[in-house]
Amino acid sequence: METTGIKPLLIVLALMIATAVAASRVGEPELAPAVGVTRALPRQVGRFTGHEMLYCAEADCAEAYGADEFDDHTVAVCPLCGGALDTMAPIERRLLPEGTEIVRAFYRDSKGSSFFVSVVIGGRDRMSLHRPENCLPGQGLSIRGNRLLDTPLDEESILHTRLLDVRRQVGGSDAAVFSHFTYWYIAPGRETPSQWRLYAWMAADRLIHARMDRWAYVAVAHDYNPLHEKESLEKLREFLANLRPLIIVPAAIPGA
């Protein structure tokens, strides 16, 4: 039996069991107030202009809009049903644990290239943050590849993210759209593309330090032509290198 993938899982499970035992004896630690990312996405990322996404809070409507569709001086309500607008879709608001926060935006440049950015800030329940590999297939997407993506940030640091090669069919035809979907997790002073490391840190913090950090999940998606995949990855790296310093909270970086 292959053991390289099982050992980290066993370590995490052991930490989680120990955490549950400790929590039953001393109670749950307080949730740290600090978040490692900003709670609003930047308006500009390099040459790309962002348009924040809003959703009608009425479950029977749930229409999605760009925040720029509404004038600053008007109260933003759904033009279709008059319902309130929210940063989360109604089904997310209903299913995700209390304390979860979500912000999303589309970014476009003058040449028609675009990126979709989603930031999910978790609360006390770690189920706020789940692997997209578990939910993307339920949205009609197939995952064709799964690997790490390294993005140089400067001469000394590299951003490590998990990269999924995603495909979705167009209507009922044979045509397909190809996308690169990359994500990673951020807490004050910490970053990782691994959910197992995320869970291990969560468990160790509760057990050893009696602390609960608020973790955030950051995802970036970008459609591409499979004949020009190399160029697409370079565009994705450029976007990530420009995005990261704009969403990281400087005070959360050790030594900052």
Number of separate domains: 2
Specify the CATH architecture of the largest domain. Answer: 3-Layer(aba) Sandwich
SSE topology string = HEEEEEHEEHEEEEHEEH
How many strands, what sense, and barrel or not for the largest sheet?
A: 11 strands, antiparallel
- Helix/sheet category: alpha+beta
Helical fraction equals 25-40%
How many β-strand runs?
A: 13
Outline type: globular
What is the distance, rounded to the nearest whole angstrom, between the alpha carbons of the first and last residues?
45 Å
* CATH class category label of the largest domain: Alpha Beta
Please mark out the parts with pLDDT under 50 across 5 or more consecutive residues, or reply none.
21-26, 252-256
In round numbers, the mean pLDDT is: 84
Which strand-content bin applies to the residues? 25-35%
What does this structure look like?
The protein is of the alpha+beta class and 256 residues long. The protein folds into two domains: 42 residues, no CATH class; 150 residues, Protein Transport Mog1p, Chain A (3-Layer(aba) Sandwich), CATH 3.40.1000. The chain contains five helices and 13 strands. The strands form two sheets. Strands 2, 3, 4, 5, 6, 7, 8, 9, 10, 11 and 13 form an eleven-stranded antiparallel β-sheet that branches. A hairpin with a 2-residue loop joins β2 and β3. α1 packs parallel to α4. The radius of gyration is 20 Å and the shape is globular. The C terminus is likely disordered.
